[in-house]
Amino acid sequence: MQTADKHPSMATDVKTILKLKVPVIVQIGKRRMTMEEILDLAPGAILELDKGSEQWLELMANNKPIGKGSAVKVGENFGIRIEEIGSPRERAEAMAG
């Protein structure tokens, strides 16, 4: 007998969990700055990041990496074309914390 058969509410719980919306972040790069540098930021300032313009962007869920991709334009918005993605298990573990 399947676990879901023994516990019908378990199947309902899984369906509910799969419908939860979680924030997804596409990170273009990082940089460490001193507090003074941060306080000196002004409109028009340009920050150089640690990634080259041709490197893949990092796709994150729950602040944990789950994949990589390249930037694309979708209408008037930015998007990401997935080039590498973790397994469903790896992605679920990232979202679980």
UniProtKB/TrEMBL annotation:
Family: Belongs to the FliN/MopA/SpaO family.
InterPro entries: FliN-like_C, FliN_T3SS_HrcQb, SpoA-like_sf
Keywords: Cell projection, Cilium, Flagellum
Recorded coiled-coil stretches: none
UniProt GO molecular function: cytoskeletal motor activity
GO BP: any one term: bacterial-type flagellum-dependent swarming motility
Gene behind this protein: fliN_2
Name listed for the protein in its UniProt record: Flagellar motor switch protein FliN
Keyword Cell division attached: no
Flagellar motor switch protein FliN-like C-terminal domain: residues covered: 17-85
Cellular compartments per GO CC: bacterial-type flagellum basal body
Pfam families cross-referenced by the UniProt entry: FliMN_C
